[in-house]
Amino acid sequence: MADQVEEGKTAHMAEGGSFPLEYDAAADTRVRRKLDWNMLPLFFVLYRSNIGNAEIAGMKKDLKLGGDRYEWLLTIFYITYIVFEFSLLFWKILPPHMVAATVIFLWGLVATLQSAAQNWSGMMALRFFLGAFEAAYAPGVIYLFSFFYLRHEVGFRCGIFASAAPLASTFAGALAYGITNGHSKLANWRLLFLVEGIPTILMVPFAYLFIPDSPDRAKFLSPEEKEIARARAIRQTGMSERLGSVDVRQLAKTLFDLKAWCNAMGYSSIDAQGLSAPPYFVAFLFALITTFLADRTQQRGLVLIVTSLVGAIGYLVLATVDTVGARYFAVFLAAAGVFSTIPNILAWTLNNQGNDSRRGAGLVLINVVGQCGPVLGTRLYPANEAKRYVKGMSVCAAFMLFAAVLSLALRFLLVWENRRLDRKYGAPGSAVAAESDKEVVTPDEKYPGPVGKAPNAAVEDYGPNYRYVL
User: Fold this and answer.
1) How far apart are CA 401 and CA 384, in angstroms?
2) CA 470, CA 465: separation in Å to the nearest integer?
3) Is the dihedral of CA 41, 43, 151, 443 positive or negative?
4) Is-cis flag, bond preceding 387, omega within 30?
5) How many CB atoms lie under 10 A from the CB of residue 176?
6) CA of 8: how far to CAs of 4, 26, 228, in Å?
7) Torsion angle of alpha carbons 95, 100, 101, 103, nearest 10°?
8) Would you place residue 87 in the very low, low, confident or very high pLDDT band (cuts 50, 70, 90)?
């Protein structure tokens, strides 16, 4: 192969490390689109149980959920979610298709068994396990995306996955209405859990058969496309084989990373929100639009500031205004702000951790801290404060404003970090950075030698050309 790379093509280390693999933007786009069409729809359609609809459908009365017993059903879910958050690392340690199939089956089984609960204690036990399996699933999918997509691509995919929740809720209300207005001999809330849980179990074979363990093992890619996928992985971390273990030292480093804690506290602020009936479809669209823009501009901090302020304005109006029309519009703002901020914070975490172990640790941290928000959120809307819930709306507005302040502070910190790296190594791509790059050794045994001799290897890992996404 020629030593010179043709204009418009990108050179990467190929299998065996002996020569650079050349491919153009069109080939890269083709591989990325195949990944999108074969992965995202599968994760998008996996269904989630909606205990709020079950409460309306008569569960509270049948199970005698007086006092704060219903709130405890919500709280126990988030407590176990926090405790078992480390399980998302199994997506890197074990084959992802096996982890996904196991978690989806167990989650669907427990969700379905809720239909058979006879008392509060039985439902509490089921909610305990549901939280544990949910902790392994949703954050694990976000983590898996980081194995397949580059820094400037992953945010929009996080947005697609996270937007499934508001979109599903758009139809969940209609589903609940249809069930509760039927004439089944089975209690409406029990039928609701069956209808929402069984489809999840039916998705298990699809998860096992069609979720690829890594881009270069994807059955839907041709041999040439697998080489491109392998080159993309090397571009990220300097290695093509990324499964099997995590680096404990890198996990520990994340615990002392101020930037990771800022992200986590911002996520906790957002995740404290509890919207009972927002205009979910608008939230779905806003999540897609904002994550797409943040990926294109690589200005995720500014996008987060805007989405947090949009949500804060919505909650402030809900807390202070009595007019029905104004309050209805405010629900649009609150829903759009909350559901678009969450995927952008998750993507920002993935953007600014340089290797797989630290990305995993960042997601563990952000969800452990973040899920403390819903624990508070389950207590923000007591029945005696209906229908305006002034205290709950005010607290949510304060948290959204706090998220905006944290995003601004973190962005300033990242600007300072990037300038420090520029002073140390020179601007990315400069002669100084290139010379420094030659002293950095790729960690992949299959591709030994300095990164400087492996074109575009590990450029998304920590090194002279690494810069934080603002």
Assistant:
1) 26
2) 15
3) negative
4) yes
5) 21
6) 12, 10, 15
7) 120
8) confident
How many Å is the Cα radius of gyration of the chain? 23
Residue 329 CA: distances (Å) to CA of 200, 239, 280, 313, 393:
34, 49, 13, 11, 15
What's the token pair of residue 371? Answer: 């899920």
CA angle 57, 311, 88 (to 5 degrees): 70
CA–CA gap between residue 448 and residue 446 (Å, rounded): 6
* Tokens representing residue 470 in the block: 């603002």
Model pLDDT, residue 433: 52
CA angle 179, 280, 36 (to 5 degrees): 100
Between 11-15, 141-145, 172-176, 432-436, the lowest mean confidence (pLDDT) is in 11-15
Encoded tokens for 447? 């591709």
| The residue type at 4 | Q
Is the CA virtual torsion 226, 229, 235, 238 positive or negative? negative
pLDDT digits (tens, 9 = 90+) for 15-62: 444 344 566 778 888 888 999 998 888 887 765 655 555 555 677 888
* Average pLDDT score over residue span 361-384: 75
Q: Which of 293-307, 322-336, 428-442 has the lowest mean pLDDT?
A: 428-442
Beta bridge partners of 10: 23
- Percent of the chain whose predicted confidence (pLDDT) is above 70: 72
Q: Find, among 268, 52, 292, 70, the residue nearest to 160 by Cα.
A: 292
**Cα angle at 463 between 461 and 469, to 5 degrees?**
60
Per-residue tokens: 453: 């001799």
